[in-house]
């Protein structure tokens, strides 16, 4: 048994519907490993239960796994607004969201969150950034502008398979985007942050009051 397997045996079980979604994602979608999966999914749900946000912004829906996990943790009346810029994914993702038990807590929007999310006129309590790594800094600035003081941003993939400390990826635009983001957040006095070495790296960021 690997350490990852041991961990998954000692946390809350993955709901059947989410396991089916994870399987379908890996079978039918390119880069299926981008889906949050069991461990991160249970963490996202628990963080929502701890923070108790009313409105959550997600940038990068992919197959809908993380949006469903966060929606599971919402109190009554809460909503996840999730943006996916790649319209080719809509035919796969929308049915999985709409057929989930939390579909009434998720608004799935096809479009560029950087330009479209501010148009909603909503102040968010929490955000999950998991979109294009090349534009993480721009996504972060947009998210911070619509986040309430004291609110939280979760940024995924911030260790990028260890590429952030591998000089062999210095010219890779996605790695560069993550490195630029990490350095920018580290020096941003408007927030406090910590990187968790979970899966591919998850940064928890709190906007100062």
- How many strands appear in the DSSP assignment? 7
Which whole number gives the mean pLDDT?
94
In helices, the fraction of residues equals: 25-40%
The run of helices and strands is HHHEHEHEHEHEHEE
Number of helices: 8
Give the strand order of the largest sheet, numbering strands 1, 2, ... along the chain: 3-2-1-4-5-7-6
Radius of gyration: 16 Å
Helices and strands: which structural class?
alpha/beta
Portion of residues in beta strands equals 15-25%
Low-confidence stretches: none
Largest sheet: 7 strands, mixed
Give the N-to-C terminal Cα separation: 44 Å
Principal-axes shape call: globular
Structure report:
Helix content is 39%, strand content 21%. It contains 8 helices and 7 strands. It has a 7-stranded mixed β-sheet, with helices on both faces. Strand 6 (191-196) and strand 7 form a beta hairpin. Helix 3 (37-51) runs parallel beside helix 4. The longest helix is centred in the first third of the chain and has 15 residues, at 37-51. It is globular and about 40 Å long. The N and C termini lie far apart (44 Å). The relative contact order is 0.13.
What is the secondary structure topology, with strand pairs?
Elements: H1 3-9, H2 16-28, H3 37-51, E1 55-59, H4 65-73, E2 79-84, H5 90-98, E3 106-110, H6 113-116, E4 124-129, H7 136-145, E5 147-156, H8 173-186, E6 191-196, E7 202-207
Helix pairs in contact: 3-4
């Amino acid at each position: 048994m690997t350490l990852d397997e041991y961990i998954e045996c000692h946390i809350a079980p993955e709901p059947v519907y989410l396991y089916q979604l994870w399987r379908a994602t890996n079978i039918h979608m390119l880069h299926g490993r981008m889906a949050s999966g069991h461990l991160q999914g249970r963490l996202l749900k628990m963080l929502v239960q701890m923070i108790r946000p009313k409105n959550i912004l997600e940038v990068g829906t992919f197959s809908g796994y993380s949006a469903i996990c966060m929606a599971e943790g919402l109190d009554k009346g809460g909503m996840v607004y999730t943006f996916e810029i790649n319209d080719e994914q809509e035919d796969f993702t929308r049915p999985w969201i709409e057929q989930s038990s939390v579909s009434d807590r998720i608004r799935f929007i096809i479009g560029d969150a950087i330009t479209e999310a501010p148009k909603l006129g909503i102040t968010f309590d929490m955000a999950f950034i998991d979109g294009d790594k090349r534009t993480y800094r721009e996504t972060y600035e947009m998210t911070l502008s619509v986040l309430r003081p004291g609110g939280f941003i979760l940024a995924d993939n911030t260790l990028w398979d260890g590429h952030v400390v591998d000089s062999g990826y210095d010219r890779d635009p996605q790695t560069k985007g993550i490195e630029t983001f990490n350095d920018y957040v580290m020096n941003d006095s408007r927030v406090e942050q910590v990187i968790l070495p979970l899966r591919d790296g998850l940064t928890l960021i709190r906007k100062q009051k």
